[in-house]
Amino acid sequence: MCAARPGSRRRDAAPEDQLSAVPNRRSGRRPGNPDTRDAVLAAARAAFAERGFDGATIRGIAADAGVDPALVHHYFGSKDKLFLAAVDAPADPSELLPTVLASPRDELGAAVVRMVLHVWDGPGRAAGLALVRSAVSNDWTAKLLREFLVATVLRRVVSTLGFDPDVRAARASLVASQIIGLVMARYVLRLEPLASASPDEVVAAIGPTVQRYLTGDVELPGH
User: Fold this and answer.
1) CB atoms within 10 A of CB 161
2) How far apart are CA 63 and CA 57, in angstroms?
3) How many CB atoms lie under 10 A from the CB of residue 182?
4) How far apart are CA 208 and CA 107, in angstroms?
5) Dist CA 106 CA 221 (whole Å)
6) Which end of the chain has the lower number of beta carbons within 10 A, N or C?
7) Residue 112's CB: how many other CB atoms inside 10 A?
8) Beta carbons of 178 and 205 less than 8 angstroms apart
9) Which residue segments constitute the domains of the chain, with CATH numbers given?
């Protein structure tokens, strides 16, 4: 672990700024302490928002934060875990997607909706609501939410369906529109009777639409 260089200044990030502001890039190494972890998270948020999940790298984030890449691995373990921490994600997709991906092809739509309800009706609701509400008014958080939903969740679902990359992207965007609409209507706006409907009722109503977006005959945007 490297000691801080002379002349470096301590950086105290206000909690309310951590998602909404793009951190200033600084050179120099940081010691392994809570301020270091906050600096890595701030650099990660900017990198994922600017370059997307695929374009951001552990090495680049470490350089932006002024730390050794090994320290990033020490704190977060992997790029996936760092991304979830940076976004303050309501759930870890790696824990939920195996059940979805194990579903028959013609039941994927229902499985996706059940996964969404499982997250939002569970203990992750508060974090999810904070992320969605922030994304509505802040472009950086919107980019992070988009990366979370598309890059780490939906792309892994549509990649199993055998479509060309451009078709997968179009289908994923349509599914995302349905999921975001469901979350906004049921949990943010609390529109009735959707807000009070049982999970089975929601799956029965919305699952077929998601299924059509995933595998059905639909006019795709951009095609």
Assistant:
1) 13
2) 10
3) 20
4) 9
5) 22
6) C
7) 26
8) no
9) 15-87 (1.10.10.60), 93-215 (1.10.357.10)
As given in the structure block, the two tokens for residue 173 are 């965007």
DSSP 8-state secondary structure symbol assigned to residue 160: T
Q: Are 80 and 94 in contact (CB under 8 A)?
A: yes
Using the 8-state DSSP alphabet, how is residue 107 labeled?
G
Which two three-digit tokens encode residue 16?
A: 């309310």
CA distance 8 to 11: 9
Nearest to residue 38, comparing CAs of 57, 10, 60, 4? 10
The per-residue pLDDT for range 108-162, each reduced to its tens digit, is 999 999 999 999 998 888 888 888 888 888 888 898 888 889 888 999 999 999 9
pLDDT at 6 > cutoff 70: no
Q: Is the pLDDT of residue 63 over 60?
A: yes
Question: Would you mind telling me the total number of residues written for the chain in this entry?
Answer: 223
Non-local (6+) Cβ contacts of 25 within 8 A are 43, 64
Task: Answer yes or no: are the C-beta atoms of 120 and 183 closer than 8 Å.
Answer: yes
Q: Which two tokens stand for residue 149?
A: 């939903």
Distance of CA 183 to the CA centre of its chain: 14
DSSP 121: T
Checking if the pLDDT of 56 tops 80, the result is yes
Q: What are phi and psi of 24, to 5 degrees?
A: -70, 140
Q: Which residues contact 68 (CB under 8 A, 6 or more apart)?
A: 1, 2, 29, 62
What is the 8-class DSSP label of residue 37? H
Compute the average pLDDT of residues 72-91.
Answer: 90
What six digits make up the tokens of 220?
Answer: 């795709």
